[in-house]
Design goal:
disordered N terminus, two-stranded antiparallel ribbon, Rossmann fold, 12 strands, 18 helices, alpha/beta
Length: 434
């Protein structure tokens, strides 16, 4: 049953040594800015798997590898490919997910006449370049380059514009950026679970201001305050930017499959402690209200954090939205690649890296039709106090609604795919009628 409150409705080789030395020699003399920060090794390329086998996917969805996408070979799930000239929809997954996370909503959109694409984003899954190391250059992971990835993919499939770009979790702000940078290409925007904050501001009307003090890290004070709490805490995004995070989750004591099971469980509606509500302010005291998967104990990694909430065998067997054979797709992929490719996005945002590039779009808003969907049991909607209000009132000028889906936590398109697909189709049909 839907409950309406204003616009809130309660309801994601064989090469020779000579050639190798030649490549190494060229790398030494060519300017570093003209080369990728780190090329995959020949052995890593040979070990890259091909597309998914058909048995891994629902009927009507195919897995394929697409070359020459902004320097990548991109793995894409595709539905609605049987006929040409269909309006396109692009799905952008979050962390730690894959294009596979959209498998349950792709079919309904394809059946409604859409051409649906769900790639593994840069650094993830079977898209090339997942052999990322902590010390690699972060430049390829800057926001505007990831938008360029999506432009290349859409163009490769022959679309000059799309009906919608839809993003979940870290894919949500990326979808927002797609809408900001190329409104002609992305004709509507759906953001899920993580409210997009809009482009960073440039100081305005400061011509008579006194010289500014050297830029500090005033925003870091909250992290120091978290560390002084009893017990001391830390924010998960800061943890994800650390050197040890990848190894902790890639080779956890409980094994990667059990780690992911506990992680997905703890952020879902199945974990009954998830009873989110708005926070009053961005302070350590308010953040301490968040569950441990958001504001962790200072001296624990994520593997240890979620281990205590591992669901029982009976709970795993009862999990219809992520049965064990589907979870194995995630654990096999992350077991092969590790998590660093996905973690680069958190490192990119840490310390304001690349903010100057994003400031080129300061003051821009999402002016195409937009929508926000979250899970009613998802703290992600509220962890940044006021963000959902800013999204509706400031960042977007044509938001048609905000929907919180009953029976869903953070993994809303997987936990409640029928309702989410219905919301997508309702939104898309409304745009076609305009």
């Amino acid at each position: 049953m839907q409950k309406h409150t204003h616009d809130l409705v309660l309801f994601n080789g064989g090469l020779t040594v000579t050639r190798r030395r030649l490549i190494q020699g060229l790398a030494a003399v060519v300017a570093p800015t003209l080369l990728p920060a780190r090329l995959p090794s020949v052995s890593a390329q040979a070990a890259d798997p091909g597309p998914y086998s058909p048995g891994m996917l629902p009927a009507g969805i195919r897995s394929r590898l697409v070359n020459n996408i902004n320097g990548l070979r991109m793995h894409v799930l595709e539905a609605g490919f049987e006929s040409a000239n269909r309006p396109g929809v692009l799905f952008l997954h979050g962390y730690p997910e894959l294009g596979y996370s959209w498998r349950k909503v792709m079919g309904p959109l394809a059946a409604a006449g859409y051409h649906v694409l769900a790639p593994d984003r840069r650094g993830y899954g079977r898209t090339s370049g997942t052999d990322v190391k902590y010390d690699d250059d972060l430049t390829p992971f800057r926001t505007l380059n990831e938008v360029r990835d999506m432009l290349g993919l859409v163009s490769a499939f022959g679309h000059r514009s799309l009906a919608a770009v839809i993003g979940h979790d870290s894919g949500s702000p990326l979808a927002g950026w797609c809408g900001i940078v190329r409104p002609d290409m992305f004709r509507s925007v759906v953001m899920m679970s993580a409210p997009y904050g809009g482009p960073p501001a440039i100081p305005f009307n400061t011509v008579d201001a006194k010289p500014a003090a050297p830029a500090g890290n005033a925003g870091d004070a909250i992290y120091e305050e978290l560390a002084r709490l009893n017990p001391p805490r830390k924010h998960y995004q800061r943890y994800y930017a650390t050197r040890e995070a990848n190894e902790n989750m890639w080779h956890p004591p409980q094994g990667i499959h059990a780690f992911l099971r506990a992680y997905y469980h703890m952020k879902s509606a199945d974990w009954k402690q998830n009873q989110p509500h708005p926070l009053q302010a961005r302070t350590a005291g308010e953040w301490a209200r968040l569950p441990r998967y958001y504001v962790m104990d200072l001296h624990k990694g994520m593997a240890e954090t979620v281990a205590s909430e591992m669901p029982s065998a009976a709970e795993v067997a009862a999990c219809r939205w992520l049965p064990d054979d589907e979870l194995k797709v995630y654990s096999a992929e992350y077991g092969r690649t590790g998590f660093q490719g996905g973690l680069q996005g958190y490192r990119r945002g840490s310390g304001g890296r690349f903010t100057s590039d994003e400031q080129l779009f300061s003051g821009r808003t999402i002016d195409q039709p937009s929508m926000f969907i979250g899970g009613k049991s998802d703290w992600g909607v509220y962890q940044n106090p006021g963000a959902i209000d800013r999204l509706q009132k400031t960042v977007c000028t044509r938001m048609v609604g905000t929907y919180l889906v009953e029976g869903a936590g953070h993994w809303v398109q997987q936990e409640q795919p029928e309702e989410v697909a219905r919301l997508f189709l309702q939104f898309l049909r409304r745009q076609l009628q305009r």
